[in-house]
Amino acid sequence: MKLSFGLIAIALAAGLTTGSLAFADNFEKPGAEIQNEIPAELKEATITEHLGEKIDLDMKFKDETGALVPLRTYVADGKPMLLSMAYYSCPSLCNFHLNGLTDAFVKMKEPLGEVFHHVVVSIEPKETPDLAKIKKDNYMKAYGRPEGAQGWHWMTGEQANITALSKQVGFGYRWDEEAKQYAHASAAMVIAPDGKITRYLYGIVFDPKTVRLSMVEAAHGEVGTTMDRLILYCFHFDPKSSKYSLKLFNIMRGGGVLIILAMIGFIAPFWIRNSRKASQGES
User: Fold this and answer.
1) Residue 41 and residue 56: Cα distance in Å, rounded?
2) Do 9 and 67 reside in the same domain of the chain?
3) DSSP-based three-state secondary structure for 191
4) Is the domain of 68 the same as that of 201?
5) Looking at residue 129, what is its pLDDT?
6) Is there a single domain that holds both residue 169 and residue 207?
7) What Å distances lie between residue 155 and 95, 143, 283, CA to CA?
8) What separation in angstroms does the CA of 273 have from each of 2, 6, 90, 225, 266?
């Protein structure tokens, strides 16, 4: 009888999970605003991780002064590089990404350039060093630490090099003619001094300690694991509203699994104890 109770409890937990999934599914259908599948037009605008692979450090881009510089320049001192692919005329996501990183940089003890360099490469070949300088100047004001200017680099380049670099780091993007802007994801790539990709930092909010430790690992060539995907798993970026919205279905699905595991963890000891008592009674 006690054994049956354990089975009933687990079945009940499974039923609650199924019910929550059904509720989440029904909740999403009427509005059709939150989709679980990536829209076809955005499938090209995703991140494909290439952890452990190397980028071509000899590729050249123009910095904000107009000088043609190989990427190798920014790791020549043995320090790693944090790479962001964005574009300076972006009306939404790029700004959120760069704002989030700037907030993290402000909270770090060391100024940019002391532990690592941050390199921003524009994906728009029409953008110029002049625009890159304007962007850098604006962010330097927000950063408020002039000594970090030598560690922050804003690049523009030709389409061939932009395409090559984006493929090497797995940064997908496409032009959205209707919105008149690029569709792309938000992630910063951690690059070791030898050009190895060691970690991807996703999102628009970045923990300063996580960023710094990721760079310290990269300095030693250590390839990390991606944990930030678990956070973004619960969010969906809507390019039309330029905001992240909570994905209730994913939260409920994850919560349902946790309910089952918690119930099993609670019931299992009683189940095992009762089974042993029953076996001893029979003997």
Assistant:
1) 29
2) no
3) strand
4) yes
5) 97
6) yes
7) 16, 18, 79
8) 10, 12, 62, 39, 12
Q: Which amino acid is at 142?
A: A
Residues 31 and 44 in one domain: no
* Domain identity same for 146 and 73: yes
DSSP string across 66-117: S-EEEGGGGGTTS--EEEEEE-TT-SSHHHHHHHHHHHHHHHSSSPTTTS-E
Domain assignment of residue 80, given as a range: 40-245
Length of the chain: 283
Give the single-character DSSP code of 156. Answer: B
pLDDT of amino acid 197: 94
| CATH code of the domain covering residue 161 | 3.40.30.10
Give the dihedral sign, CA 228/231/233/237.
negative
Residues 6+ apart with CB under 8 A from 105: 112, 118, 143, 148, 208
Do 148 and 225 lie in one domain? The reply is: yes
Q: What confidence score (pLDDT) does residue 184 get?
A: 84
Residue 160 in tokens = 């061939």
Task: Report residue 121: phi and psi, to 5°.
Answer: -115, 125
133 and 171 both lie in a single domain: yes
Looking at the fold, whether 168 and 217 belong to one and the same domain comes out as: yes
What is the tally of helices (H) and strands (E) in the chain? 7, 11
> pLDDT class for 225, splitting at 50, 70, 90?
low
Tell me if 25 sits within 8 A of 34, measured CB to CB. Answer: no
Planar angle of CA 253, 257, 262, nearest 5 degrees: 145
pLDDT category at 42 given cuts 50, 70, 90 is low
Pick 65 or 91 by higher pLDDT. 65
Of 34 and 98, the structure prediction assigns the larger pLDDT to 98
Structural domain count, the chain: 2
Tell me the CB-side half-sphere exposure of residue 15, using CA atoms within 13 A.
Answer: 6
- Position 93 scores a pLDDT of 85
